[in-house]
């Protein structure tokens, strides 16, 4: 029964994909949305059932082997699912948030001609994402990893009539390929070192290795390169803001709540390896902190509602990696969960705004929408409050936990995180104020058209708002009188780490007063930034300058995203183009010569060989006799 | 053992059913009988190693798996015959009975423990094939093919019988065990009688699986025989032939591996070259498939030549993948050739496939998957078949052989993709071809299995 349910989880979205993918030309729109959403909801129900059964059975991790997948020499890769605390948490996020976004899409994509295709892709994405987190070895994870990358590519370029969207899709794909290369090399190194890709086997062997073993550092760094690509960390983050070309539900599901957290999932899954490689963790923490502050600073001056959220996602992912780097694995997972709620909510809210504004995304043209879109406004407000880390909403608990660990580990990292947090609060409130407060700045036509979104869109918003507000209860720290259920739930995942590197893996040693102090500081900073945003955009009612105005100094650099895209273009893309042009004009000649020559040779040989087939039986038998004679003579007399 | 008894009896039943006025019962009855035989086959699944007829015939997991592949292929081919209802001249009862009898021969080739059994099996299978090749009585080429096949088959049979006699002369035994103990006793002092006998038996068998230089009959016979029987020949005869070769070489003659592998390796390379290179020049899709079957005999011979632990699994998987893909290829060829017939004859050239995808997306898709599998493209069963074959050769360090094989599979892509390109890219007007539902199901099932085993080759082992 458990096996059946477990298989059902990824199978349902796959079935949904097959039905909608094959039949989207024939199935009516209403049915497409229902089939797609039911697949997601069914998968969610199965996940809940599996979670309950898991708890009932005493929370023991289980590996369910489906069949031997690939056996080559000594290496055997089974196709099996592992369900434990980590994969179950991910399952809940993916299927839960996924279901809501499916339902939302019914309303949001209603007028789109690619409706069926869209739902087919969404279901396919769910399937691969579930495979990624359910597999019991790195190869299945890699299949999922590549699969979600493919779906991401397809969905970013969903409106493929627009060339710049296609370019964005290509960029995402290529950037991810760079990361994938690292990930693959990491898997190969794992195979070469441990002779297996099964998590349990790899981790069992890894615990026997000394701390800081070069092999482990190599493996973890390579895997982290993969995470950098998928989870958009410096230097591979530039694809994520461009990925906003995709429909908004896609941004919410793939580029905020689930796929981009695959890197964090992977690190937590491999926590033993990382715990044993402190040097790598150092790198992870620095990259995470740098990304957190860097992306947040770009977010300060963006004027596209989705771009702000995109940079915010990059920055929040940076926080999660910062948490991983200081070995606050469960705190990072906590942030993954709360972030999934409030960031999905923000994107869906943004989608609702864009829907109402007839596809306008520039916040300079919005304003005063709170009266026209009350539900969207309230839910968006809750999410803003949550992401800014203000109590009592969920973001406060998860972000503070990461910052507390960072503080204990390294004061500088904490300070960077704090500055990033201040920026987060500022750009989020700026976004909120510019969009929903003040006076409407759009065209008359848009104003006339303004309307609250249909129920299929607002209900997911409300559900997510509840979770964004209350999601923090699963991880209330002891200092605030809670028991941090999440950390307790996840604790068995880190048994191996604890055993392998007990010194590094110590519980937080801050006193309660210190914790109160840290919380106080971060809340204060966030509040102050929020107030600053209020002063600027409500009291002074200033609006960001239009595109045409030239900006000066630092502001100019930030506005243009520090020219990173231009830099990559100049350093990588252009030389590559030149080289490929050179090869095309020069190398092609020789290659053609070789290829055509081979073709001609084979053809000539074939013509020659064909003539042996005369059609005369006598000749055939003669040839056979000659063959027999040669074989016998050679074997019996000559050899 | 059950399938042999069952099909011998049920074959006669089919002949009697032929007396009925209505011929429409024959096809479902034959299919049912094949299912019965399949069930019978699994009765001995868990019985381990069994011996029958005073040790002349063996039943074990390996033979049962080969039987299953053969039966499954036969089921699909019989399902595609459509009962010969569109042909007034046809004698469906006799064809079906002959097919069932020939399967009995195939089982004997798979399970023999005694050379007499092997000989009997080869003859039962071959004689039925000679007749089926010539079953299109009004067609001159079918008659010519049957006669050619018979003449050359008789020649090869003679050679093989002579080899068996020499083996008996050397070892004083017909049984695999007897020969094996003789071989191990006399490993140091070579017996030329034994060597000559082995070579002649091998030549006889290589003729049946159409390895070069004993392949000359293949293109002419495959081309001349009615397509449905060509499919039968290309899959069942080949699978049974390789099962027999494997049992012979892995059992009795593994002690003198050093003697036979050089000869076999040279013939392997020759087969690969002949099959793949000549296939390039063909204009007829059916004739190309004949050369393709020669080339696949070459790949299977690689596994045989390396004869490692992996060989058994490699041959099983390869025959399975090859059979499914070949059946699909013929399954598409038959309706297309009929639709495009020229002057009353089916048109089997590449041109017949031009523009097939436009109105017949399913047929084009099935064709594409089968061609990809035959070419050994990843995500199809054919890829893993080649992979297992090559990895067994790697284990023996026969690198030069793999180089030839890989180059030749590159050549293979040329002629396999030609028909895909014709179906999808060339201009042509093929009306929507009506296919019976059951025919369609068989095609889809074989295609899905090809993809499934391409995604998860482990499933095949798990099923065993």
Automatic annotation (TrEMBL), chain A:
<dbReference type="GO" id="GO:0016020">
    <property type="term" value="C:membrane"/>
</dbReference>
<feature type="transmembrane region" description="Helical">
    <location>
        <begin position="619"/>
        <end position="638"/>
    </location>
</feature>
<feature type="transmembrane region" description="Helical">
    <location>
        <begin position="250"/>
        <end position="268"/>
    </location>
</feature>
<keyword id="KW-0812">Transmembrane</keyword>
<dbReference type="GO" id="GO:0048038">
    <property type="term" value="F:quinone binding"/>
</dbReference>
<protein>
    <submittedName>
        <fullName>NADH-quinone oxidoreductase subunit L</fullName>
    </submittedName>
</protein>
<feature type="transmembrane region" description="Helical">
    <location>
        <begin position="211"/>
        <end position="229"/>
    </location>
</feature>
<dbReference type="GO" id="GO:0012505">
    <property type="term" value="C:endomembrane system"/>
</dbReference>
<dbReference type="InterPro" id="IPR018393">
    <property type="entry name" value="NADHpl_OxRdtase_5_subgr"/>
</dbReference>
<feature type="transmembrane region" description="Helical">
    <location>
        <begin position="308"/>
        <end position="330"/>
    </location>
</feature>
<keyword id="KW-1133">Transmembrane helix</keyword>
<feature type="transmembrane region" description="Helical">
    <location>
        <begin position="87"/>
        <end position="106"/>
    </location>
</feature>
<dbReference type="InterPro" id="IPR001516">
    <property type="entry name" value="Proton_antipo_N"/>
</dbReference>
<dbReference type="Pfam" id="PF00662">
    <property type="entry name" value="Proton_antipo_N"/>
</dbReference>
<dbReference type="GO" id="GO:0015990">
    <property type="term" value="P:electron transport coupled proton transport"/>
</dbReference>
<dbReference type="GO" id="GO:0003954">
    <property type="term" value="F:NADH dehydrogenase activity"/>
</dbReference>
<feature type="transmembrane region" description="Helical">
    <location>
        <begin position="118"/>
        <end position="136"/>
    </location>
</feature>
<feature type="domain" description="NADH-Ubiquinone oxidoreductase (complex I) chain 5 N-terminal">
    <location>
        <begin position="69"/>
        <end position="119"/>
    </location>
</feature>
<feature type="transmembrane region" description="Helical">
    <location>
        <begin position="516"/>
        <end position="537"/>
    </location>
</feature>
<dbReference type="GO" id="GO:0008137">
    <property type="term" value="F:NADH dehydrogenase (ubiquinone) activity"/>
</dbReference>
<dbReference type="InterPro" id="IPR003945">
    <property type="entry name" value="NU5C-like"/>
</dbReference>
<feature type="transmembrane region" description="Helical">
    <location>
        <begin position="458"/>
        <end position="476"/>
    </location>
</feature>
TrEMBL record, chain B:
<keyword id="KW-1003">Cell membrane</keyword>
<feature type="transmembrane region" description="Helical">
    <location>
        <begin position="398"/>
        <end position="417"/>
    </location>
</feature>
<keyword id="KW-1133">Transmembrane helix</keyword>
<feature type="transmembrane region" description="Helical">
    <location>
        <begin position="25"/>
        <end position="43"/>
    </location>
</feature>
<feature type="transmembrane region" description="Helical">
    <location>
        <begin position="93"/>
        <end position="110"/>
    </location>
</feature>
<dbReference type="GO" id="GO:0012505">
    <property type="term" value="C:endomembrane system"/>
</dbReference>
<feature type="transmembrane region" description="Helical">
    <location>
        <begin position="116"/>
        <end position="134"/>
    </location>
</feature>
<dbReference type="GO" id="GO:0005886">
    <property type="term" value="C:plasma membrane"/>
</dbReference>
<comment type="function">
    <text>NDH-1 shuttles electrons from NADH, via FMN and iron-sulfur (Fe-S) centers, to quinones in the respiratory chain. The immediate electron acceptor for the enzyme in this species is believed to be a menaquinone. Couples the redox reaction to proton translocation (for every two electrons transferred, four hydrogen ions are translocated across the cytoplasmic membrane), and thus conserves the redox energy in a proton gradient.</text>
</comment>
<feature type="transmembrane region" description="Helical">
    <location>
        <begin position="146"/>
        <end position="168"/>
    </location>
</feature>
<feature type="transmembrane region" description="Helical">
    <location>
        <begin position="438"/>
        <end position="460"/>
    </location>
</feature>
<dbReference type="GO" id="GO:0008137">
    <property type="term" value="F:NADH dehydrogenase (ubiquinone) activity"/>
</dbReference>
<dbReference type="InterPro" id="IPR001750">
    <property type="entry name" value="ND/Mrp_TM"/>
</dbReference>
<keyword id="KW-0812">Transmembrane</keyword>
<keyword id="KW-0520">NAD</keyword>
<dbReference type="Pfam" id="PF00361">
    <property type="entry name" value="Proton_antipo_M"/>
</dbReference>
<feature type="transmembrane region" description="Helical">
    <location>
        <begin position="288"/>
        <end position="308"/>
    </location>
</feature>
<keyword id="KW-0472">Membrane</keyword>
<feature type="transmembrane region" description="Helical">
    <location>
        <begin position="314"/>
        <end position="337"/>
    </location>
</feature>
<protein>
    <recommendedName>
        <fullName>NADH-quinone oxidoreductase subunit N</fullName>
        <ecNumber>7.1.1.-</ecNumber>
    </recommendedName>
</protein>
<dbReference type="GO" id="GO:0048038">
    <property type="term" value="F:quinone binding"/>
</dbReference>
<comment type="subunit">
    <text>NDH-1 is composed of 14 different subunits. Subunits NuoA, H, J, K, L, M, N constitute the membrane sector of the complex.</text>
</comment>
């Amino acid at each position: 029964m458990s096996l059946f349910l477990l298989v059902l989880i990824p199978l349902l979205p796959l079935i949904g994909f097959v039905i909608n993918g094959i039949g989207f030309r024939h199935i009516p729109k209403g049915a497409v949305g229902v089939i797609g959403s039911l697949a997601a909801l069914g998968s969610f129900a199965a996940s809940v059932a599996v979670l309950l059964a898991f708890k009932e059975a005493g929370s023991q991790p289980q590996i369910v082997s489906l069949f031997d997948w690939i056996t080559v020499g000594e290496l055997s890769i089974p196709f099996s699912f592992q369900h434990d605390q980590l994969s179950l948490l991910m399952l809940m996020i993916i299927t839960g948030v996924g279901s809501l976004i499916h339902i939302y899409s019914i309303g949001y994509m209603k007028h789109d001609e690619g409706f069926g295709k869209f739902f087919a892709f969404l279901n396919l994405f769910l399937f691969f994402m579930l495979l990624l987190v359910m597999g019991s070895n790195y190869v299945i994870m890699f299949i999922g990893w590549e699969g979600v990358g493919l779906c991401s590519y397809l969905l970013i370029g969903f409106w493929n009539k627009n060339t710049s969207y296609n370019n964005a899709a290509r960029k995402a794909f290529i950037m991810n390929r760079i990361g994938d290369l690292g990930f693959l090399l990491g898997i190969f190194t794992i195979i070469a070192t441990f002779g297996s890709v099964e998590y349990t086997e790899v981790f069992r062997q890894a615990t026997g290795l000394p701390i800081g073993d070069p092999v482990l550092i190599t493996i973890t760094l390579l895997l982290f390169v993969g995470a950098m690509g998928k989870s958009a960390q410096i230097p591979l983050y530039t694809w994520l803001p461009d990925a906003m070309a995709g429909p908004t539900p896609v941004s919410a599901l793939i580029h905020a709540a689930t796929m981009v957290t695959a890197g964090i999932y992977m690190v937590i899954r491999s926590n033993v390896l990382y715990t044993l490689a402190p040097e790598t963790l150092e790198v992870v923490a620095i990259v995470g902190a740098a990304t957190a502050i860097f992306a947040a600073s770009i977010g300060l001056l963006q004027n596209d509602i989705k771009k702000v959220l995109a940079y915010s996602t990059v920055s929040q992912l940076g926080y999660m990696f910062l948490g991983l780097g200081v070995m606050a694995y469960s705190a990072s997972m906590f942030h993954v969960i709360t972030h999934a709620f409030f960031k999905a909510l923000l994107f869906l809210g943004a989608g609702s705004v864009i829907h109402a504004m007839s596809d306008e995304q520039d916040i300079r043209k919005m304003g005063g929408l709170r009266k026209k879109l009350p539900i969207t406004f309230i839910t968006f407000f809750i999410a803003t409050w949550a992401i800014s880390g203000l109590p009592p909403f969920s973001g406060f608990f998860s972000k503070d936990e990461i910052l507390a660990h960072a503080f204990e580990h390294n004061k500088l990292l904490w300070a960077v995180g704090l500055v990033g947090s201040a920026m987060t609060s500022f750009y989020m409130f700026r976004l909120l104020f510019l969009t929903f407060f003040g006076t409407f700045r759009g065209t008359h036509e848009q104003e006339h058209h303004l309307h609250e979104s249909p129920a299929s869109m607002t209900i997911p918003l409300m559900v997510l708002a509840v979770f964004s507000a209350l999601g923090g209860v699963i991880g209330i720290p002891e200092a605030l009188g809670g028991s941090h259920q999440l950390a307790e739930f996840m604790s068995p995942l880190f048994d191996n780490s604890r055993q392998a590197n007990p010194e590094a893996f110590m519980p937080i040693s801050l006193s309660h007063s210190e914790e109160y102090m840290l919380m106080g500081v971060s809340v204060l900073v966030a509040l102050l930034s929020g107030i600053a945003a209020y002063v600027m955009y409500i009291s002074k009612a200033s609006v960001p300058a239009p595109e045409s105005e030239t900006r000066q100094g630092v502001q100019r650099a930030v506005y243009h995203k520090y020219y990173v895209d231009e830099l990559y273009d100049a350093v990588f893309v252009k030389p590559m183009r030149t080289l490929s042009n050179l090869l095309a004009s020069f190398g092609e000649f020789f290659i053609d010569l070789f290829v055509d020559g081979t073709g001609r040779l084979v053809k000539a040989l074939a013509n020659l060989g064909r003539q042996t087939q005369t059609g005369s039986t006598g000749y055939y038998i003669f040839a056979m006799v000659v063959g027999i004679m040669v074989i016998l003579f050679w074997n019996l007399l000559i050899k | 053992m059950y399938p042999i008894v069952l099909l011998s009896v049920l074959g006669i039943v089919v002949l009697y059913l032929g007396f009925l006025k209505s011929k429409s019962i024959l096809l479902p009855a034959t299919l049912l009988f094949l299912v019965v035989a399949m069930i019978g086959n699994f009765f001995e699944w868990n019985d381990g190693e069994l011996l029958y007829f005073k040790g002349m015939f063996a039943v074990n997991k390996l033979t049962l798996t080969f039987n299953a592949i053969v039966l499954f292929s036969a089921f699909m081919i019989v399902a595609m015959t459509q009962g010969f209802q569109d042909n007034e001249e046809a004698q469906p009862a006799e064809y079906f009975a002959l097919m069932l009898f020939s399967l009995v021969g195939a089982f004997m080739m798979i399970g023999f423990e005694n050379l007499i059994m092997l000989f009997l099996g080869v003859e039962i299978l071959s004689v039925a094939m000679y007749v089926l090749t010539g079953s299109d009585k009004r067609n001159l080429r079918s008659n010519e093919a049957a006669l050619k096949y018979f003449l050359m088959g008789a020649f090869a049979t003679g050679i093989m019988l002579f080899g068996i006699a020499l083996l008996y002369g050397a070892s004083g035994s017909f049984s695999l065990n007897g020969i094996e103990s003789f071989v191990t006793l006399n490993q140091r002092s070579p017996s030329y009688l034994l060597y000559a006998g082995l070579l002649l038996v091998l030549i006889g068998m290589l003729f049946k699986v159409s390895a070069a230089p004993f392949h000359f009959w293949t293109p002419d016979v495959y081309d001349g025989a009615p397509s449905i029987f060509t499919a039968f020949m290309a899959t069942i005869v080949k699978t049974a032939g390789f099962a027999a070769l494997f049992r012979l070489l892995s059992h009795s003659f593994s002690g003198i591996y050093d003697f036979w592998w050089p000869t076999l390796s040279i013939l392997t390379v020759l087969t690969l070259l002949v099959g793949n290179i000549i296939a390039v020049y063909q204009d007829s899709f059916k004739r190309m498939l004949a050369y393709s079957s020669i080339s696949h005999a070459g790949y299977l011979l690689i596994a045989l030549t390396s004869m490692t632990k992996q060989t058994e699994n490699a041959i099983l998987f390869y025959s399975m993948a090859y059979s499914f893909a070949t059946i699909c290829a013929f399954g598409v060829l038959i309706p297309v050739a009929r639709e495009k017939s020229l002057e009353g004859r089916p048109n089997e050239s590449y041109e017949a496939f031009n523009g097939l995808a436009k109105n017949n997306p399913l047929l084009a898709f099935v064709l594409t998957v089968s061609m990809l599998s035959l070419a050994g493209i990843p995500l199809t069963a054919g890829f893993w078949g080649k992979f297992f074959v090559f990895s067994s050769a790697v284990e023996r360090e026969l690198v030069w052989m793999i180089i030839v094989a890989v180059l030749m599979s590159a050549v293979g892509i040329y002629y396999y993709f030609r028909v895909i390109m014709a179906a999808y890219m060339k201009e042509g007007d093929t009306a929507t071809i009506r296919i019976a539902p059951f025919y369609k199901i068989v095609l889809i099932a074989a295609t899905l299995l090809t993809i499934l085993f391409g995604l998860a080759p482990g499933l095949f082992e798990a099923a065993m």
